[in-house]
Amino acid sequence: MALIIGTFAFSAYGQQKQDGPKALELSRAVRPWEFLPVTGMRAGLLGDESGRMEAWVYPLKVLREFHLKFHAEGRTLPAEALARTITVRPEASTILYAGDTFKVRETLFVPVHEQGAVILLDVETEQPFEIEAVFHRDFQLEWPAALGATYLNWEAEQHVFYFGEEQRKFAAFVGSPTATEPQQEYQTNYSEAHESSFRLGATAKGKERKAIVIAGSIEGRAAAEKTYRHLTADYADLLKESAEYYRNYLAQTVSLDLPEEQLQKAYDWSRVSMLQGMVTNPFLGTGLVAGYRGSGETQRPGFAWFFGRDTFWTSLALNAEGDFSNARKALEFIAKFQRQDGKIPHEISQGANFVDWFKGYPYPYASADATPLYIIAANDYVVESGDAAFAKEKWESLEKAYAFLKSTYDEHGLPQNFGVGHGWVEGGPLLPVKTEYYQSGLGAEALRALSNLAQLAGQDELSKTLAKDFEKQRALVNESFWIADKKRFAFALDKDDKQVDEPSVLATVPMWFGLPSEADAAPMIQQLADMDHETDWGMRIISNRSPLFSGGGYHYGSVWPLFTGWASVAEYRYHQTSPAYANLRANALLALDGSLGHVTEVLSGDYYQPLSTSSPHQIWSAAMVVSPILRGMLGLETDAIHHSVKLAPHVPADWMRFTAQNVRVGKDALLINYSKTDEGIVLEAGLTSGSEECTFEFRPAIGLRARVQKVELNGKPVPFQVETRGSDQHIVVQFPITSGKYFLRIRLLNAFGLSEQSSLPALGSASKGLRVLSETWSASRDQLTLEVSGAAGSVYELNAWGSSEIEKLEGAEKVQQAGWSTILIQIPLNESEPYPHKTVVIHFLAGQKKGQPERH
Asked: For 823, what's the count of Cα atoms within 13 Å in the CB-facing half-sphere?
């Protein structure tokens, strides 16, 4: 949507930093089917909102089917039938169970750095009441490793079950200081039982707290017992430490204050969600896993092992929010498993060290795209963090990765998927292909990234050569895939080098990096913004009108939040802000639905619901809330090498303000306040720590009808430029920041813009929202033509800022409200087309106000 401008009266400079971050919490009525993860770096509880859990102490699975039974009023009641509300916080989650005369708050807690978990049970009852904890022993290593025979013993003196195996390397304890009346699994010639349980002691009346502790170790019984005692004695302090860990993380990375509450919550929760992907495996090290889902009777907990391309896409979000420490750890983890020929790994199981993983299995190096992504991610980290030493330390690894990438080029100079490893698509009717536009685009961008890294590593001549190679490769890639008569990019080239004309959201990956021209990118984005590609919950991989489409097709019809994030960042880059914001908002709303605080891996392309095989807490899906907000909507770019920061916001028309603090540029941290009124934009910026001078470039988007009257920095005129794009303009102002506060005021005339708040449909429903496909202004800027699509027979609302200048509408109606106007759009009934297009024309009053802009 075309952006409009203005300012608002914001709070005192630095006030938010003094107040500190607010505690995060989400709560709702229990959905028994929804996934509930509680994770630390060394352990996790994975289950659902009914209270059924499995416990992991990486790389060990300890138990499954953990659940509670309540003994009250002479009855045995299954706790899951009484689960009423769920409350999640970064450090713990609480399920409230309620009966007629009692209630129980079950708080599930995994300390950040400990090899175990604690379950706190706060009981309030009118009459005698007792809790029983029930579980299945499932003491095995994560796939594809195995322990062989394992066993379970009750140890009465310690009130615990001891889990062991024949070599006595791995051990675990599950119990409680008040545990009594154990019931143990057994197997005889005549019968068997797989459940084990213990009771926690009766509560006669009133309030009482019980605790269940789970601990494990790869170093034998003594180490597991030590952890068990520590968790039992110190859980209260550990819970406080974990809460403080997350609070500090949110305060030390880029913190936003947004006027839209749902986006605010989604941004903060997505930062937490990404952090929860950092896992320490005692055999392999610390890196980013891909996501979490319950494993059931198997030993594969979703994608809770390490993936190359997942790590790299997530690292771009970590860099954007200033979490350079974890970004570096994640990159280093993947790099140390680089193959001898330079290829970067696709996936590394948490059980990899127990088997011949890298030679005996087909998965470790299955993808071709992890290799160029490694180079791209390394460069992004170095630029954003200023860690030039990393480029030198990893130069040999980076050169090897490039050598492998180059070895995959075909006779035309394009990197191949076929016979090398899959690009994005791993299977299904879109294959086989020789190379995807996605993959070839990454190969080109890797050249640009390596050129910059070479310069930082002292390889100046190589850097110049790579820069030239990049320009040639960029042109080759775009020319090879562009279908001129249809104004879109081919999905791939087939084995005969023919274009596969299947428009796909995968094309937005080269757009993320700005590889195609705006003249080519914009019309394809407008095609992808239509109802056949874009759903209310995100982007399908291909059109639902394609004969290859299936809504449940993992790689040929489903919706990935990853795709949606790619599209949003690309759409913002090419100033297509209506679909960009719709896609950003779709991912953000997903973070507040489903598994609370997390974004799922993949959803149906037909109906709003996750696929049955989806991992509900997927790390790169959370990254695709953070990157579209920071890199996309706010246009925030930091370059610590050159000590500069850019802010190019395309914020919605109804936003009067936003604040970003702790924006890191080397040793400096900045606070930025943006505001608007009828008169224009005000930017307030300054250092909150550090003292090095940095260059600040402010590039706010304004509508094409708007005119700049003047630009002042701290009350004095300052040079500026206006860059005109196809759908908006950007005012460009540069100034140095050293110390003190900087107030930039931009005075405008004729500001106009539109906004629309999308929403998720009911679970299981089809898509029904409005799509704004294109906005075209007349040369005289007195007429705006909108091409929209929507569900036949539906009525939609657009809010209009600066609507007093509207003379008349064609294809819509205007309803005046206080300070705003609402534009009503009726989509006509159409028996043959469920989502027809409609044209809306907005005519503005003649005699547009003419500002006399100061051009310098």
From this structure: 27
